[in-house]
Amino acid sequence: MTWMGYGRKRTGGWLQGGVSSATVMDGPIEQIEAEVRQRLWTLGRDGGYVCQIDQSLPYPQAHQQAFQAAVEQFGRPGSLPPA
Fold first, then answer.
1. Is 9 a member of any domain?
2. How far apart are the first and last CA of the chain?
3. Range of 19's domain?
4. Is residue 60 one of the residues assigned to a domain?
5. Percentage of residues in the chain with pLDDT exceeding 90?
6. Angle at the Cα of 11 (from 34 to 64), degrees rounded to 5?
7. Do residues 44 and 82 touch, judged by C-beta distance below 8 A?
8. Of 7-11, 19-23, 34-38, 57-61, which gets the smallest average pLDDT?
9. How many domains does the chain have?
């Protein structure tokens, strides 16, 4: 069983987190978008994933907005896999 399979079994099918706080803190925005897209594809393509930053910190507003926009763009059914 994979670690994701184990995690989903232990949590009733749900996973959360996964986006690096360092990426969101430091940027650039393109890297934030790429990491969100990768996490959503890797952890959430079968559903049951809550995409969050791994820590709660005072992130730059532009970076928080980029994170939220990327989740909205890539976190819906039918989104393309990562480039």
1. no
2. 27
3. 15-74
4. yes
5. 46
6. 30
7. no
8. 7-11
9. 1
Tokens, residue 28: 């650039």
Amino acid at 59: Y
pTM of the model: 0.80
Q: Does some domain include residue 2?
A: no
Q: Between 29 and 8, where is the model more confident?
A: 29
Q: Judge whether 43 lies within some domain.
A: yes
DSSP 8-state class, residue 34 = H
Please determine, for residue 82, whether its predicted confidence score (pLDDT) is greater than 70: no
Q: Report the 3 state secondary structure along 15-82.
A: EECCECHHHHHHCCHHHHHHHHHHHHHHHHCCCCEECCECCCCCCCHHHHHHHHHHHHHHCCCCCCCC
